[in-house]
Amino acid sequence: MKRMSPLAILLAGISVAAVMLGAGWQWNRIFAPGSAPRADVVAAASRGPEVPGEGADPVPEDSATPPTGNGGEAPPVAREPVARQALTGTWAGHLKEGSLAVAAKNGAAIAYLCDGDKLEAWLTGTAVDGRLELKGDDGSTLTGTADKKQATGTVTVGGKARDFTIEVAKKPSGLYRFASRVRGAKIVGGWIVLKDGRQVGLAKVNGQVVKPSTIDVTTGRATVGAETVTAVPAEDTTS
Hints:
This protein is mostly beta strands. It contains two helices and 15 strands. It has helices spanning 6-30, 39-46, and strands spanning 89-94, 99-105, 108-114, 120-128, 131-135, 141-146, 150-157, 160-168, 174-182, 185-193, 199-205, 208-210, 221-224, 227-230, 232-233. It is elongated and about 160 Å long.
């Protein structure tokens, strides 16, 4: 075995020292004495080459959809209120007990049940969306339906219910009413004029029932007691 010369040994030692010195510099760069490893250097050393676009925040799949603000659910759709249909018309007919007339104008309704003797009741309410809903001061009620041909339902007066089906009344048929003070007396009168010309009506003078004369459907005039009054179509008194 050939022995190395002193010069060769010296050169080999210098080479080894240079290698160890370089490795020590890299080590100190990563792990400085008394400190934590530098995260940027460790991360750079551990990951591969960067790919353009990597690391950016992900883009929502539907970035054009605005946030709803209520847990992801779509906001409720505002619904426009459905317009109600106010009825205008008059229906009248004879029942087994008395006669009944209902008059409506722009959804406001008035009804009169009368037998021409003792039974009578005035009711007011609404005629909307084909429905009749009326009440009287004495507890009377009327419920039913109405259209361009007829009105059907139940009227209850004095605790007794009466079913009815009455037809559309064409002038001069219909319901006429007078309500006012004459010479200090409070007079309220009603006349139902049926399609065959018959009239059924009663009046009250200061609360006392009296039988009025028939009404002149042309002028609206009638006599109540000693007074001459002028009645009008009942639908004109609903507003």
